[in-house]
Amino acid sequence: MTKVSVVMPAHNAAKTIKESINSVISQTFTDWELLVINDSSTDDTETIVSEYVQKDTRIKLLHTDKSVGKPFYPRNVGIQAASGRIIAFLDSDDVWLPTKLENQLPLFEDNDTAITFSYYEKFSTVQNESNKNRVIKSPETVSFKNALYGNPIGNLTGMYDTQKVGKIFYEDAGHEDYILWLTILKKGFIAKNTNTVEARYRVAEKSVSSNKGKAALWTWNIYRKTLGFNLFKASFCYALYMFKGVSKFLK
User: Fold this and answer.
1) Rounded mean pLDDT for each run of 10 residues along the chain, 251 residues in total
2) Which CATH entry fits the domain spanning 4-208: 3.30.700.20, 3.40.190.10, 3.90.550.10, 3.30.70.2740?
3) 41 in Cβ contact with 10 (< 8 Å)
4) CA pair distance 13, 115, nearest whole angstrom
């Protein structure tokens, strides 16, 4: 297969970034580069990453020229610098399981698949966290049509093929990862799932993504502003999105 560029934004991630980097180093597929983008950290993040850079030439330390307080910007710095055909994403507090790249890369072999992804498991170091050790599953195949009613692709598992779609960058908007996947799928490509757990997502004590009200507003804005749907179509999609969300909560 071909080289994978792993994009990892990092802001004051000294407590968790070693575990994240080690999970990339432990991959059974070894043709990768890890681009760690230090986003104005004031802790020991830069020192920790620099030590890895000295030991492994596949690991590179980049810096943002400004801090905007949002992950889309350092991720875009990483995408711009990426030299691999496949671009993957891992935040500096999440981890991959060792077979992630090995199991996802073969799914790119057909011409229609531009994204591959997997199941992932939520975990937390916060006491009494209700989402602890919960596996998040998704459909086996995702198209633009069935991705409209909620994001089925966890950002820490998603990878895309630049040879098929070019470099696609994140937008400065809520649910920027969802917008990225929709942009690629709208071109007529599909996403394929390994149907296996290949990553672990750390639930932060004050996670932005856990704010359901914000998430709902972001989704509405995607329908109306990003995709340009009229009020009727946006309302229809939003109703199905809300129904799926409630159904998931009641399970």
Assistant:
1) 93 96 98 97 97 98 90 97 98 97 97 98 73 82 94 97 98 95 98 98 66 86 95 94 72 54
2) 3.90.550.10
3) yes
4) 28
